[in-house]
Design goal:
globular, 3 domains, five-stranded mixed β-sheet, 24% strand, Nucleotidyltransferase, domain 5, alpha/beta, 9 helices
Amino acid sequence: MLYLGADVGSVSTDIVLIDDNTEVIEKLYLRTRGKPMQAIQEGFGILKEKYGNSKIGAAGTTGSGRQIASTLIGADAVKNEITAHAVAALEMAPDVQTIIEIGGQDSKIILIKNGVVSDFAMNTVCAAGTGSFLDRQAERLGIPIEAFGDYALKADSPVRIAGRCAVFAESDMIHKQQLGYHESNIIMGLCEALVRNYLNNVGKGKEIRQKVFFQGGVAANKGMKTAFERALGLEIHIPEHYNMMGAIGAAILAREAVSKVGKSKFKGFSLAKSRFESRSFECQGCSNHCEVVRIIENDKEIGCFGDRCGKWGSKIAI
């Protein structure tokens, strides 16, 4: 029996299959590119070729696109990113107390006490410190993003970069380049600036305790890990599937949900060949005037989301 988890974000769509022992059997990283439905279909097309005859016992979704993904695939659990990341981390390390998560477009901190989330914070306002900002700087410097961390670790005298704002950080980097500083020192200086930004904003007022997990795509950057360890004076642990933790958490939550009801709502991998589109309208039922999104599969409405009261969201075609 396999269990599916999908983390649909603004930058990437991550899909995993886990078994009863929470071992990751398959994982897919797909660029969302503003088209979450197509990204899910692309992933399901790949999974159908490899696991078409396998039994999927449950499916869960998380991420900013979790509602639309849930409607498409027939999810048994639809949870926010905080819950999904915490569940995955606790499954791998029951003694984890702090989760630093930095993804493509946002960053989070999750504090855990006695196996339960006690506090959290998110930064969705500024791009500084996110994966997309680092991608842009790597591209501007002509360095593969995969090598960014290696460059940072070569620094012998990191340059101080203004990291409070993405625009100021980039301007300061350009200024330091013009002054002739070595790329490695600039890159490590950038990593240290982004860590300061994170701790002074997302982590402000938070008690960061061991064990600390670093999750999300940015965890692949060795320079960021080193900068966090220097700033905190603590060891930072990066789980094996650091960039898939949200999807893993969604799969675990779905498995637990189905164990209680006994049957999954998962529609199968065949949706890879379906034709999907979304249409929206403004509900006039009350003063909220919610924008309701209709999901159409092969000219048939399969579900709605976006309403606050549940009037439309509960009307899912069978």
